[in-house]
Design brief:
Largest interface: A-B, 52 and 52 residues
Oligomer: homodimer
CATH architecture of the largest domain in chain A: 2-Layer Sandwich
Radius of gyration of chain A: 20 Å
Number of domains of chain A: 2
CATH topology of the largest domain in chain A: Nucleotidyltransferase, domain 5
Number of strands of chain A: 12
Helix content of chain A: 25-40%
Number of helices of chain A: 10
CATH class of the largest domain in chain A: Alpha Beta
Structural class of chain A: alpha/beta
Shape of chain A: globular
Largest sheet of chain A: 5 strands, mixed
Chain lengths: 315, 315
Protein backbone atom coordinates (compact mmCIF):
# COMPACT_ATOMS: atom_id res chain seq x y z
CA UNK A 1 0.00 0.00 0.00
CA UNK A 2 1.20 3.53 -0.73
CA UNK A 3 -0.07 7.07 -0.31
CA UNK A 4 0.62 10.19 -2.36
CA UNK A 5 1.39 13.64 -0.97
CA UNK A 6 1.17 16.74 -3.16
CA UNK A 7 2.65 20.02 -2.00
CA UNK A 8 1.41 22.98 -4.01
CA UNK A 9 3.35 26.23 -3.72
CA UNK A 10 3.00 29.57 -5.48
CA UNK A 11 5.64 28.64 -8.06
CA UNK A 12 5.91 24.82 -8.09
CA UNK A 13 4.19 21.57 -7.25
CA UNK A 14 5.84 18.53 -5.66
CA UNK A 15 4.38 15.04 -5.58
CA UNK A 16 5.78 12.12 -3.60
CA UNK A 17 4.83 8.50 -3.01
CA UNK A 18 5.31 7.03 0.46
CA UNK A 19 4.84 3.55 1.84
CA UNK A 20 2.40 3.19 4.70
CA UNK A 21 5.36 3.12 7.09
CA UNK A 22 6.67 6.40 5.72
CA UNK A 23 9.41 5.40 3.31
CA UNK A 24 9.77 7.71 0.32
CA UNK A 25 9.30 5.64 -2.84
CA UNK A 26 9.58 8.39 -5.44
CA UNK A 27 9.21 12.13 -5.80
CA UNK A 28 8.83 14.63 -8.62
CA UNK A 29 8.64 18.40 -8.86
CA UNK A 30 7.21 20.61 -11.58
CA UNK A 31 7.30 24.38 -12.05
CA UNK A 32 3.91 26.09 -12.37
CA UNK A 33 5.46 28.27 -15.13
CA UNK A 34 3.00 31.09 -14.59
CA UNK A 35 0.01 28.76 -15.05
CA UNK A 36 -3.21 30.12 -13.58
CA UNK A 37 -6.66 28.79 -12.67
CA UNK A 38 -7.62 25.44 -14.14
CA UNK A 39 -4.20 25.04 -15.82
CA UNK A 40 -2.65 24.57 -12.37
CA UNK A 41 -5.23 21.91 -11.53
CA UNK A 42 -4.52 20.33 -14.94
CA UNK A 43 -0.80 20.09 -14.11
CA UNK A 44 -1.53 18.48 -10.77
CA UNK A 45 -3.95 16.02 -12.42
CA UNK A 46 -1.26 15.04 -14.95
CA UNK A 47 1.27 14.46 -12.15
CA UNK A 48 -1.32 12.39 -10.30
CA UNK A 49 -2.12 10.25 -13.35
CA UNK A 50 1.58 9.49 -13.83
CA UNK A 51 1.96 8.36 -10.25
CA UNK A 52 -1.32 6.46 -9.90
CA UNK A 53 -0.89 4.74 -13.25
CA UNK A 54 2.79 3.89 -12.80
CA UNK A 55 3.76 0.24 -12.44
CA UNK A 56 4.45 0.55 -8.78
CA UNK A 57 4.44 -2.58 -6.67
CA UNK A 58 2.25 -0.70 -4.23
CA UNK A 59 -1.12 0.56 -5.42
CA UNK A 60 -2.03 4.08 -4.28
CA UNK A 61 -4.67 4.00 -1.57
CA UNK A 62 -5.10 7.68 -0.81
CA UNK A 63 -4.03 11.15 -1.91
CA UNK A 64 -3.34 14.21 0.27
CA UNK A 65 -2.84 17.75 -1.00
CA UNK A 66 -1.30 20.78 0.70
CA UNK A 67 -2.47 24.16 -0.63
CA UNK A 68 -0.91 27.56 0.09
CA UNK A 69 -4.04 29.23 1.47
CA UNK A 70 -7.39 28.00 2.72
CA UNK A 71 -8.96 24.60 2.11
CA UNK A 72 -12.72 24.81 2.63
CA UNK A 73 -13.61 21.39 4.00
CA UNK A 74 -17.37 21.74 3.48
CA UNK A 75 -17.31 22.74 -0.18
CA UNK A 76 -14.04 21.13 -1.30
CA UNK A 77 -12.94 24.45 -2.77
CA UNK A 78 -9.66 26.26 -2.13
CA UNK A 79 -8.44 29.84 -1.89
CA UNK A 80 -4.80 30.40 -2.78
CA UNK A 81 -3.78 34.06 -3.07
CA UNK A 82 -0.65 33.26 -5.08
CA UNK A 83 -2.46 31.20 -7.74
CA UNK A 84 -4.55 33.43 -9.97
CA UNK A 85 -8.14 32.25 -10.35
CA UNK A 86 -8.10 30.21 -7.15
CA UNK A 87 -10.40 32.35 -5.06
CA UNK A 88 -12.92 29.55 -4.61
CA UNK A 89 -11.57 26.86 -6.89
CA UNK A 90 -13.27 23.40 -6.90
CA UNK A 91 -9.98 21.51 -6.53
CA UNK A 92 -11.42 18.48 -4.73
CA UNK A 93 -13.88 17.76 -7.54
CA UNK A 94 -11.14 18.14 -10.20
CA UNK A 95 -8.77 15.77 -8.43
CA UNK A 96 -11.50 13.24 -7.67
CA UNK A 97 -12.24 12.99 -11.38
CA UNK A 98 -8.70 11.68 -11.86
CA UNK A 99 -8.45 9.61 -8.69
CA UNK A 100 -11.69 7.66 -9.07
CA UNK A 101 -12.28 5.64 -5.92
CA UNK A 102 -8.98 6.65 -4.30
CA UNK A 103 -9.90 9.16 -1.56
CA UNK A 104 -8.50 12.70 -1.82
CA UNK A 105 -7.95 15.00 1.18
CA UNK A 106 -6.94 18.66 0.97
CA UNK A 107 -5.67 20.90 3.74
CA UNK A 108 -3.76 24.16 4.15
CA UNK A 109 0.03 24.14 3.94
CA UNK A 110 0.36 25.16 7.60
CA UNK A 111 -1.77 22.18 8.68
CA UNK A 112 0.30 19.85 6.49
CA UNK A 113 3.58 21.17 7.93
CA UNK A 114 2.74 20.15 11.48
CA UNK A 115 1.37 16.80 10.22
CA UNK A 116 4.68 16.26 8.42
CA UNK A 117 6.61 16.91 11.62
CA UNK A 118 4.20 14.65 13.52
CA UNK A 119 4.75 11.75 11.14
CA UNK A 120 8.45 12.02 10.36
CA UNK A 121 9.95 15.11 11.97
CA UNK A 122 10.43 16.70 15.37
CA UNK A 123 6.81 16.48 16.56
CA UNK A 124 6.79 12.66 16.63
CA UNK A 125 4.78 11.46 19.61
CA UNK A 126 3.42 14.95 20.40
CA UNK A 127 -0.25 15.70 21.01
CA UNK A 128 0.09 19.47 21.36
CA UNK A 129 2.66 21.02 19.04
CA UNK A 130 2.91 24.03 16.75
CA UNK A 131 4.83 24.55 13.49
CA UNK A 132 5.69 28.22 12.93
CA UNK A 133 6.31 28.63 9.23
CA UNK A 134 8.26 31.75 8.30
CA UNK A 135 8.91 32.24 4.59
CA UNK A 136 7.63 34.96 2.28
CA UNK A 137 4.60 34.94 4.60
CA UNK A 138 3.96 33.53 8.09
CA UNK A 139 1.52 30.83 9.19
CA UNK A 140 1.13 28.34 12.03
CA UNK A 141 0.10 24.69 11.93
CA UNK A 142 -1.43 23.90 15.30
CA UNK A 143 -1.91 20.41 16.72
CA UNK A 144 -4.29 20.16 19.67
CA UNK A 145 -4.68 16.88 21.51
CA UNK A 146 -3.58 15.10 18.33
CA UNK A 147 -5.90 16.94 15.92
CA UNK A 148 -5.34 19.89 13.61
CA UNK A 149 -6.93 23.18 14.72
CA UNK A 150 -9.05 24.21 11.74
CA UNK A 151 -11.46 26.78 13.18
CA UNK A 152 -15.08 27.32 12.26
CA UNK A 153 -14.34 28.13 8.58
CA UNK A 154 -10.94 26.41 8.11
CA UNK A 155 -8.99 29.67 8.58
CA UNK A 156 -7.25 29.01 11.91
CA UNK A 157 -3.49 29.50 12.36
CA UNK A 158 -3.22 32.83 10.50
CA UNK A 159 -0.54 34.05 12.89
CA UNK A 160 0.91 36.47 10.34
CA UNK A 161 -1.98 38.74 11.33
CA UNK A 162 -0.97 38.79 14.99
CA UNK A 163 -1.21 42.29 16.51
CA UNK A 164 2.08 43.00 18.28
CA UNK A 165 2.95 46.66 17.68
CA UNK A 166 0.51 49.37 18.68
CA UNK A 167 -0.88 51.63 17.42
CA UNK A 168 -2.18 50.08 14.19
CA UNK A 169 -0.26 51.19 11.10
CA UNK A 170 -1.77 51.22 7.61
CA UNK A 171 1.35 49.68 6.12
CA UNK A 172 0.45 46.31 7.64
CA UNK A 173 -3.11 46.37 6.29
CA UNK A 174 -2.54 43.83 3.51
CA UNK A 175 -0.48 41.22 5.36
CA UNK A 176 -0.87 41.63 9.12
CA UNK A 177 1.41 43.19 11.74
CA UNK A 178 3.60 40.18 12.61
CA UNK A 179 4.13 39.26 8.95
CA UNK A 180 4.93 42.87 8.06
CA UNK A 181 7.92 42.91 10.41
CA UNK A 182 9.10 39.33 10.75
CA UNK A 183 8.50 37.33 7.54
CA UNK A 184 11.22 36.88 4.92
CA UNK A 185 9.70 39.76 2.99
CA UNK A 186 9.42 41.69 6.27
CA UNK A 187 13.12 41.28 7.09
CA UNK A 188 14.01 42.69 3.67
CA UNK A 189 11.47 45.51 4.03
CA UNK A 190 12.67 46.60 7.47
CA UNK A 191 16.29 46.58 6.22
CA UNK A 192 15.33 48.74 3.22
CA UNK A 193 13.51 51.23 5.47
CA UNK A 194 16.55 51.49 7.73
CA UNK A 195 19.00 51.95 4.86
CA UNK A 196 17.01 54.73 3.25
CA UNK A 197 17.20 56.70 6.49
CA UNK A 198 20.99 56.25 6.89
CA UNK A 199 23.00 58.21 4.39
CA UNK A 200 26.22 57.68 6.37
CA UNK A 201 25.96 53.86 6.19
CA UNK A 202 28.85 52.07 4.49
CA UNK A 203 28.32 48.47 5.53
CA UNK A 204 27.75 45.12 3.84
CA UNK A 205 24.49 46.14 2.19
CA UNK A 206 25.84 49.38 0.65
CA UNK A 207 26.17 48.02 -2.88
CA UNK A 208 22.58 46.82 -3.07
CA UNK A 209 19.87 49.15 -4.16
CA UNK A 210 17.49 49.19 -1.24
CA UNK A 211 14.69 47.73 -3.40
CA UNK A 212 16.75 44.69 -4.27
CA UNK A 213 17.72 43.64 -0.77
CA UNK A 214 16.43 40.20 0.25
CA UNK A 215 16.22 38.41 3.58
CA UNK A 216 19.16 36.27 2.41
CA UNK A 217 21.25 39.44 1.98
CA UNK A 218 20.38 40.52 5.51
CA UNK A 219 21.39 37.11 6.94
CA UNK A 220 24.70 37.29 5.03
CA UNK A 221 25.38 40.80 6.30
CA UNK A 222 24.47 39.66 9.83
CA UNK A 223 27.27 37.09 9.69
CA UNK A 224 29.65 40.03 9.08
CA UNK A 225 28.17 41.86 12.10
CA UNK A 226 26.82 44.59 9.82
CA UNK A 227 25.14 47.25 12.02
CA UNK A 228 21.95 47.48 9.99
CA UNK A 229 21.57 43.71 9.71
CA UNK A 230 22.18 43.34 13.46
CA UNK A 231 19.50 45.93 14.19
CA UNK A 232 17.02 44.28 11.81
CA UNK A 233 17.54 40.82 13.31
CA UNK A 234 17.39 42.12 16.87
CA UNK A 235 13.94 43.58 16.19
CA UNK A 236 12.90 40.44 14.34
CA UNK A 237 13.86 38.25 17.30
CA UNK A 238 11.72 40.49 19.51
CA UNK A 239 8.67 39.96 17.25
CA UNK A 240 9.28 36.21 16.92
CA UNK A 241 9.69 35.98 20.71
CA UNK A 242 6.44 37.86 21.38
CA UNK A 243 4.48 35.76 18.88
CA UNK A 244 5.89 32.53 20.27
CA UNK A 245 5.10 33.73 23.81
CA UNK A 246 1.49 34.26 22.76
CA UNK A 247 1.32 30.73 21.35
CA UNK A 248 2.69 29.41 24.67
CA UNK A 249 0.23 31.37 26.83
CA UNK A 250 -2.78 30.46 24.70
CA UNK A 251 -2.03 26.85 23.70
CA UNK A 252 0.38 25.49 26.36
CA UNK A 253 2.10 23.31 23.73
CA UNK A 254 4.79 20.68 24.34
CA UNK A 255 6.83 21.89 21.41
CA UNK A 256 7.16 24.75 18.93
CA UNK A 257 8.92 23.93 15.67
CA UNK A 258 10.46 26.62 13.44
CA UNK A 259 10.37 26.05 9.69
CA UNK A 260 9.95 27.70 6.32
CA UNK A 261 12.63 29.38 4.21
CA UNK A 262 13.70 31.80 6.95
CA UNK A 263 14.44 28.85 9.34
CA UNK A 264 16.83 28.13 7.36
CA UNK A 265 19.36 30.65 8.51
CA UNK A 266 17.01 31.78 11.30
CA UNK A 267 17.64 28.63 13.35
CA UNK A 268 20.71 30.33 14.86
CA UNK A 269 18.25 32.61 16.71
CA UNK A 270 16.06 29.92 18.28
CA UNK A 271 17.65 30.26 21.73
CA UNK A 272 17.39 34.09 21.53
CA UNK A 273 13.72 33.72 20.56
CA UNK A 274 13.15 31.41 23.52
CA UNK A 275 14.81 33.95 25.84
CA UNK A 276 12.59 36.76 24.52
CA UNK A 277 9.48 34.54 24.78
CA UNK A 278 10.33 33.69 28.39
CA UNK A 279 9.99 37.36 29.34
CA UNK A 280 6.40 37.53 28.10
CA UNK A 281 4.79 34.10 28.32
CA UNK A 282 2.80 32.44 31.08
CA UNK A 283 5.78 31.34 33.19
CA UNK A 284 4.75 27.75 34.00
CA UNK A 285 3.93 27.01 30.35
CA UNK A 286 7.14 28.73 29.22
CA UNK A 287 9.25 26.38 31.34
CA UNK A 288 7.62 23.30 29.85
CA UNK A 289 7.78 24.05 26.14
CA UNK A 290 10.70 23.02 23.95
CA UNK A 291 11.68 24.80 20.75
CA UNK A 292 13.30 23.07 17.79
CA UNK A 293 14.02 23.51 14.14
CA UNK A 294 12.06 21.49 11.57
CA UNK A 295 13.10 17.85 11.29
CA UNK A 296 11.76 17.17 7.78
CA UNK A 297 14.54 18.76 5.72
CA UNK A 298 12.28 21.21 3.92
CA UNK A 299 9.80 18.46 2.99
CA UNK A 300 7.22 19.07 5.72
CA UNK A 301 4.55 19.94 3.12
CA UNK A 302 4.77 16.84 0.97
CA UNK A 303 5.27 14.52 3.96
CA UNK A 304 2.33 16.15 5.77
CA UNK A 305 0.10 15.88 2.71
CA UNK A 306 0.90 12.17 2.50
CA UNK A 307 0.13 11.78 6.22
CA UNK A 308 -3.18 13.56 5.65
CA UNK A 309 -3.94 10.88 3.05
CA UNK A 310 -2.90 8.13 5.44
CA UNK A 311 -5.09 9.50 8.23
CA UNK A 312 -8.10 9.53 5.89
CA UNK A 313 -7.89 5.78 5.36
CA UNK A 314 -6.82 4.88 8.90
CA UNK A 315 -9.84 6.43 10.59
CA UNK B 1 -31.41 13.14 38.04
CA UNK B 2 -29.50 16.25 39.06
CA UNK B 3 -25.95 17.56 38.86
CA UNK B 4 -24.06 19.95 41.13
CA UNK B 5 -21.86 22.82 40.04
CA UNK B 6 -19.42 24.46 42.41
CA UNK B 7 -17.79 27.77 41.52
CA UNK B 8 -14.80 28.57 43.70
CA UNK B 9 -13.53 32.15 43.69
CA UNK B 10 -10.82 33.88 45.66
CA UNK B 11 -13.31 35.15 48.27
CA UNK B 12 -16.40 32.95 48.03
CA UNK B 13 -17.79 29.61 46.93
CA UNK B 14 -21.12 29.04 45.17
CA UNK B 15 -22.89 25.70 44.81
CA UNK B 16 -25.93 25.05 42.66
CA UNK B 17 -28.08 22.06 41.78
CA UNK B 18 -29.41 21.71 38.24
CA UNK B 19 -31.73 19.23 36.62
CA UNK B 20 -30.36 17.31 33.66
CA UNK B 21 -32.20 19.70 31.37
CA UNK B 22 -30.58 22.71 32.99
CA UNK B 23 -33.17 24.02 35.42
CA UNK B 24 -31.74 25.57 38.55
CA UNK B 25 -33.12 23.68 41.56
CA UNK B 26 -31.28 25.47 44.33
CA UNK B 27 -28.19 27.56 44.95
CA UNK B 28 -26.11 28.67 47.93
CA UNK B 29 -23.12 30.89 48.42
CA UNK B 30 -20.60 31.01 51.27
CA UNK B 31 -17.78 33.46 51.97
CA UNK B 32 -14.32 31.92 52.31
CA UNK B 33 -13.72 34.29 55.26
CA UNK B 34 -9.95 34.24 54.87
CA UNK B 35 -9.84 30.44 55.06
CA UNK B 36 -6.68 28.94 53.60
CA UNK B 37 -5.49 25.52 52.46
CA UNK B 38 -7.50 22.54 53.70
CA UNK B 39 -10.06 24.81 55.45
CA UNK B 40 -11.30 25.92 52.01
CA UNK B 41 -11.64 22.29 50.93
CA UNK B 42 -13.43 21.62 54.25
CA UNK B 43 -15.95 24.37 53.51
CA UNK B 44 -16.63 22.99 50.03
CA UNK B 45 -17.02 19.47 51.44
CA UNK B 46 -19.58 20.74 53.97
CA UNK B 47 -21.56 22.50 51.23
CA UNK B 48 -21.42 19.32 49.14
CA UNK B 49 -22.64 17.15 52.03
CA UNK B 50 -25.62 19.48 52.56
CA UNK B 51 -26.60 19.28 48.90
CA UNK B 52 -25.95 15.58 48.33
CA UNK B 53 -27.67 14.61 51.57
CA UNK B 54 -30.65 16.93 51.14
CA UNK B 55 -34.05 15.39 50.54
CA UNK B 56 -34.13 16.35 46.94
CA UNK B 57 -36.47 14.51 44.63
CA UNK B 58 -33.54 14.15 42.26
CA UNK B 59 -30.48 12.28 43.47
CA UNK B 60 -27.15 13.89 42.55
CA UNK B 61 -25.43 11.99 39.78
CA UNK B 62 -22.28 14.06 39.25
CA UNK B 63 -20.34 17.01 40.63
CA UNK B 64 -18.36 19.63 38.70
CA UNK B 65 -16.01 22.17 40.21
CA UNK B 66 -14.60 25.41 38.78
CA UNK B 67 -11.31 26.55 40.31
CA UNK B 68 -9.66 29.97 39.87
CA UNK B 69 -6.35 28.74 38.49
CA UNK B 70 -5.08 25.46 37.09
CA UNK B 71 -6.71 22.04 37.42
CA UNK B 72 -4.14 19.32 36.78
CA UNK B 73 -6.14 16.56 35.17
CA UNK B 74 -3.49 13.85 35.58
CA UNK B 75 -2.90 14.30 39.32
CA UNK B 76 -6.28 15.71 40.41
CA UNK B 77 -4.47 18.57 42.15
CA UNK B 78 -5.15 22.27 41.74
CA UNK B 79 -3.17 25.51 41.79
CA UNK B 80 -5.10 28.61 42.82
CA UNK B 81 -2.95 31.70 43.38
CA UNK B 82 -5.64 33.46 45.42
CA UNK B 83 -6.16 30.58 47.87
CA UNK B 84 -3.19 30.24 50.19
CA UNK B 85 -1.82 26.71 50.39
CA UNK B 86 -3.30 25.65 47.06
CA UNK B 87 -0.10 25.40 45.05
CA UNK B 88 -0.63 21.70 44.35
CA UNK B 89 -3.65 20.88 46.48
CA UNK B 90 -5.22 17.37 46.19
CA UNK B 91 -8.75 18.72 45.76
CA UNK B 92 -10.10 15.81 43.72
CA UNK B 93 -9.17 13.28 46.42
CA UNK B 94 -10.72 15.44 49.17
CA UNK B 95 -13.99 15.88 47.31
CA UNK B 96 -14.16 12.22 46.28
CA UNK B 97 -14.01 11.25 49.94
CA UNK B 98 -17.29 13.10 50.43
CA UNK B 99 -18.93 12.18 47.13
CA UNK B 100 -18.39 8.42 47.28
CA UNK B 101 -19.44 6.87 43.97
CA UNK B 102 -20.72 10.19 42.54
CA UNK B 103 -18.11 11.26 39.96
CA UNK B 104 -16.29 14.56 40.52
CA UNK B 105 -14.77 16.65 37.69
CA UNK B 106 -12.61 19.74 38.19
CA UNK B 107 -11.61 22.34 35.63
CA UNK B 108 -10.32 25.89 35.48
CA UNK B 109 -12.77 28.78 35.82
CA UNK B 110 -12.06 29.94 32.25
CA UNK B 111 -12.95 26.46 30.91
CA UNK B 112 -16.14 26.42 32.99
CA UNK B 113 -17.18 29.90 31.75
CA UNK B 114 -17.31 28.84 28.11
CA UNK B 115 -19.04 25.56 29.09
CA UNK B 116 -21.64 27.63 30.96
CA UNK B 117 -22.26 29.76 27.87
CA UNK B 118 -22.38 26.60 25.73
CA UNK B 119 -25.06 25.01 27.94
CA UNK B 120 -27.23 27.98 28.83
CA UNK B 121 -25.77 31.20 27.49
CA UNK B 122 -24.74 32.82 24.24
CA UNK B 123 -22.55 29.98 22.93
CA UNK B 124 -25.47 27.54 22.59
CA UNK B 125 -25.00 25.44 19.48
CA UNK B 126 -21.42 26.66 18.89
CA UNK B 127 -18.49 24.36 18.22
CA UNK B 128 -15.78 27.06 18.13
CA UNK B 129 -16.31 29.85 20.65
CA UNK B 130 -14.24 31.79 23.15
CA UNK B 131 -15.16 33.38 26.49
CA UNK B 132 -12.93 36.32 27.33
CA UNK B 133 -13.14 36.81 31.08
CA UNK B 134 -12.01 40.22 32.30
CA UNK B 135 -12.18 40.76 36.05
CA UNK B 136 -9.36 41.36 38.52
CA UNK B 137 -7.36 39.18 36.11
CA UNK B 138 -7.91 38.03 32.51
CA UNK B 139 -8.38 34.52 31.12
CA UNK B 140 -9.95 32.85 28.10
CA UNK B 141 -12.09 29.72 27.92
CA UNK B 142 -11.61 28.27 24.45
CA UNK B 143 -13.94 25.78 22.78
CA UNK B 144 -12.51 24.01 19.73
CA UNK B 145 -14.72 21.76 17.66
CA UNK B 146 -16.91 21.25 20.73
CA UNK B 147 -14.08 20.46 23.18
CA UNK B 148 -12.25 22.62 25.72
CA UNK B 149 -8.68 23.56 24.78
CA UNK B 150 -6.64 22.38 27.76
CA UNK B 151 -3.08 22.26 26.44
CA UNK B 152 -0.35 19.77 27.27
CA UNK B 153 -0.35 20.60 31.01
CA UNK B 154 -3.85 22.08 31.48
CA UNK B 155 -2.57 25.69 31.31
CA UNK B 156 -4.09 26.83 28.00
CA UNK B 157 -6.10 30.05 27.71
CA UNK B 158 -3.77 32.25 29.80
CA UNK B 159 -4.45 35.25 27.61
CA UNK B 160 -3.63 37.73 30.37
CA UNK B 161 0.01 37.04 29.45
CA UNK B 162 -0.48 38.07 25.84
CA UNK B 163 2.40 40.23 24.56
CA UNK B 164 0.92 43.35 22.96
CA UNK B 165 3.13 46.31 23.86
CA UNK B 166 6.82 46.24 22.97
CA UNK B 167 9.39 46.52 24.36
CA UNK B 168 8.92 44.30 27.41
CA UNK B 169 8.45 46.26 30.63
CA UNK B 170 9.32 44.88 34.06
CA UNK B 171 6.06 46.18 35.54
CA UNK B 172 4.12 43.44 33.75
CA UNK B 173 6.40 40.66 34.97
CA UNK B 174 4.00 39.28 37.59
CA UNK B 175 0.74 39.34 35.62
CA UNK B 176 1.44 39.56 31.90
CA UNK B 177 1.27 42.48 29.47
CA UNK B 178 -2.42 42.31 28.46
CA UNK B 179 -3.59 41.87 32.06
CA UNK B 180 -1.36 44.73 33.24
CA UNK B 181 -3.16 47.21 30.99
CA UNK B 182 -6.64 45.86 30.43
CA UNK B 183 -7.92 43.90 33.46
CA UNK B 184 -10.09 45.50 36.14
CA UNK B 185 -6.98 46.04 38.22
CA UNK B 186 -5.20 47.29 35.08
CA UNK B 187 -7.85 49.92 34.35
CA UNK B 188 -7.46 51.26 37.89
CA UNK B 189 -3.66 51.14 37.66
CA UNK B 190 -3.47 53.00 34.35
CA UNK B 191 -5.84 55.67 35.71
CA UNK B 192 -3.67 56.09 38.82
CA UNK B 193 -0.52 56.43 36.71
CA UNK B 194 -2.18 59.10 34.56
CA UNK B 195 -3.51 61.07 37.55
CA UNK B 196 -0.15 61.21 39.28
CA UNK B 197 1.34 62.85 36.20
CA UNK B 198 -1.41 65.50 35.89
CA UNK B 199 -1.28 68.09 38.61
CA UNK B 200 -3.68 70.38 36.69
CA UNK B 201 -6.45 67.72 36.59
CA UNK B 202 -9.74 68.69 38.24
CA UNK B 203 -12.13 66.04 36.93
CA UNK B 204 -14.40 63.37 38.37
CA UNK B 205 -11.60 61.38 39.97
CA UNK B 206 -10.01 64.36 41.78
CA UNK B 207 -11.38 63.50 45.23
CA UNK B 208 -10.04 59.97 45.20
CA UNK B 209 -6.55 59.31 46.39
CA UNK B 210 -4.88 57.72 43.41
CA UNK B 211 -4.28 54.50 45.37
CA UNK B 212 -7.98 54.07 46.06
CA UNK B 213 -9.25 54.40 42.51
CA UNK B 214 -11.02 51.28 41.21
CA UNK B 215 -12.17 50.23 37.75
CA UNK B 216 -15.74 51.04 38.85
CA UNK B 217 -14.66 54.64 39.59
CA UNK B 218 -13.15 54.91 36.11
CA UNK B 219 -16.35 53.62 34.48
CA UNK B 220 -18.40 56.12 36.51
CA UNK B 221 -16.11 58.99 35.51
CA UNK B 222 -16.28 57.80 31.89
CA UNK B 223 -20.06 58.31 31.95
CA UNK B 224 -19.35 61.96 32.81
CA UNK B 225 -16.88 62.19 29.90
CA UNK B 226 -13.99 62.74 32.32
CA UNK B 227 -10.82 63.31 30.27
CA UNK B 228 -8.66 60.86 32.21
CA UNK B 229 -11.32 58.14 32.21
CA UNK B 230 -11.88 58.64 28.47
CA UNK B 231 -8.15 58.29 27.83
CA UNK B 232 -7.89 55.18 29.99
CA UNK B 233 -10.83 53.48 28.29
CA UNK B 234 -9.60 54.41 24.82
CA UNK B 235 -6.30 52.67 25.48
CA UNK B 236 -8.12 49.74 27.07
CA UNK B 237 -10.32 49.28 23.99
CA UNK B 238 -7.15 49.23 21.88
CA UNK B 239 -5.67 46.40 23.99
CA UNK B 240 -8.96 44.46 24.07
CA UNK B 241 -9.28 44.88 20.29
CA UNK B 242 -5.73 43.64 19.65
CA UNK B 243 -6.17 40.62 21.93
CA UNK B 244 -9.51 39.74 20.35
CA UNK B 245 -7.96 40.16 16.87
CA UNK B 246 -5.27 37.65 17.84
CA UNK B 247 -7.92 35.18 18.98
CA UNK B 248 -9.70 35.61 15.63
CA UNK B 249 -6.55 35.14 13.53
CA UNK B 250 -5.39 32.09 15.50
CA UNK B 251 -8.68 30.30 16.26
CA UNK B 252 -11.17 31.47 13.58
CA UNK B 253 -14.05 31.21 16.11
CA UNK B 254 -17.77 31.65 15.42
CA UNK B 255 -18.22 33.77 18.50
CA UNK B 256 -16.33 35.67 21.18
CA UNK B 257 -18.20 36.28 24.43
CA UNK B 258 -17.19 39.01 26.88
CA UNK B 259 -17.71 38.31 30.57
CA UNK B 260 -16.27 38.80 34.05
CA UNK B 261 -16.77 41.78 36.37
CA UNK B 262 -15.50 44.33 33.83
CA UNK B 263 -18.16 43.18 31.25
CA UNK B 264 -20.31 44.38 33.27
CA UNK B 265 -19.96 48.04 32.40
CA UNK B 266 -17.49 47.17 29.63
CA UNK B 267 -20.24 45.78 27.36
CA UNK B 268 -20.86 49.33 26.08
CA UNK B 269 -17.46 49.03 24.33
CA UNK B 270 -18.07 45.75 22.47
CA UNK B 271 -18.72 47.44 19.12
CA UNK B 272 -15.62 49.65 19.59
CA UNK B 273 -13.60 46.54 20.39
CA UNK B 274 -14.89 44.83 17.26
CA UNK B 275 -13.92 47.89 15.20
CA UNK B 276 -10.40 47.88 16.64
CA UNK B 277 -10.10 44.10 16.12
CA UNK B 278 -11.19 44.46 12.48
CA UNK B 279 -8.12 46.61 11.80
CA UNK B 280 -5.73 43.88 12.92
CA UNK B 281 -7.33 40.47 12.41
CA UNK B 282 -7.24 38.09 9.45
CA UNK B 283 -9.93 39.82 7.37
CA UNK B 284 -12.01 36.81 6.28
CA UNK B 285 -12.15 35.46 9.84
CA UNK B 286 -12.92 38.92 11.20
CA UNK B 287 -16.00 39.20 8.99
CA UNK B 288 -17.39 35.89 10.20
CA UNK B 289 -17.03 36.23 13.97
CA UNK B 290 -19.77 37.65 16.17
CA UNK B 291 -19.13 39.32 19.53
CA UNK B 292 -21.59 39.25 22.39
CA UNK B 293 -21.84 39.81 26.09
CA UNK B 294 -22.23 36.85 28.44
CA UNK B 295 -25.69 35.31 28.49
CA UNK B 296 -25.47 33.62 31.88
CA UNK B 297 -26.11 36.60 34.14
CA UNK B 298 -22.84 36.32 36.02
CA UNK B 299 -23.39 32.61 36.67
CA UNK B 300 -21.20 31.19 33.91
CA UNK B 301 -18.91 29.53 36.49
CA UNK B 302 -21.50 27.58 38.42
CA UNK B 303 -23.49 26.68 35.29
CA UNK B 304 -20.32 25.58 33.49
CA UNK B 305 -19.20 23.51 36.46
CA UNK B 306 -22.57 21.74 36.43
CA UNK B 307 -22.25 21.14 32.68
CA UNK B 308 -18.77 19.70 33.28
CA UNK B 309 -20.45 17.25 35.66
CA UNK B 310 -23.13 16.45 33.10
CA UNK B 311 -20.57 15.84 30.35
CA UNK B 312 -18.71 13.38 32.60
CA UNK B 313 -21.76 11.12 32.86
CA UNK B 314 -22.98 11.60 29.29
CA UNK B 315 -19.82 10.36 27.61
Amino acid sequence: MSVLGIDLGGTKAAIAMFSETGELIKKETAALDHRIGSAVAGLVCDMLKDFIGSESVDPVRAVGVSVPGISRSKSGTVWAPNIKGWEDYPLLKELQSVCGTVPVSIDSDRACYILGELWQGNAKGCKDAIYLSVGTGIGAGILINGSILRGSQDIAGCIGWMALDRPFKDKSISCGCFEYYASGEGIAKVARELLVSRSEYSGELRDKYPEKITAADVFKAYEQKDVVAVEVMKQCVEFWGMAVANLISLFNPEKIIFGGGVFGPGVQFISDIQQEANKWAQPISAKQVSMEESGTGGNAGVIGAAYLALQAINI
